[in-house]
Every structure is written in C-alpha cells, then in structure tokens.
Amino acid sequence: MVFATVHVVGNENDLVPWSRLPGGDRPQERLAEFEARKAAWIDNAFSVARRTHAPGVLLMMQAEPTDTPGS
Is this structure's pTM higher than 0.70? Predict the structure, then answer.
C-alpha cells in the first residue's frame, strides 16, 4: 500500500485567480504551480504503486472545509 499526502494550498487548490498579488492574477504561473505540485504528489504516488506492485494508494489531505472570512 502506498500512503501519500496531498498539499492543497490557496483558494480552491490554487485554481481561483490570485486577486491579492500586486498587478493581479498570473494565470500561467498559477496553473503551472498547480500542475507541478499535482505531479509531485499524486502522480508520484501512483508511479511508486505501479513500480512496487502495491495493492492500492491512499491519498490524504487537509483543507479548510468552510468558507472563512478573507479567503
């Protein structure tokens, strides 16, 4: 079994435009960060599982489940 954590950051896992940056959103950088982070955690976990013939993958994450002021 492969156990992995998923690092979820920012609003909606960084898929919502960055409204607080000087100059506004930078969609290319934001989406590139999301894809790189996803590849680093999720894709790697499944690669390890395939390579080691693991019977399964368990992904765990933590995030704020409610809409909080200032988010």
Answer: no
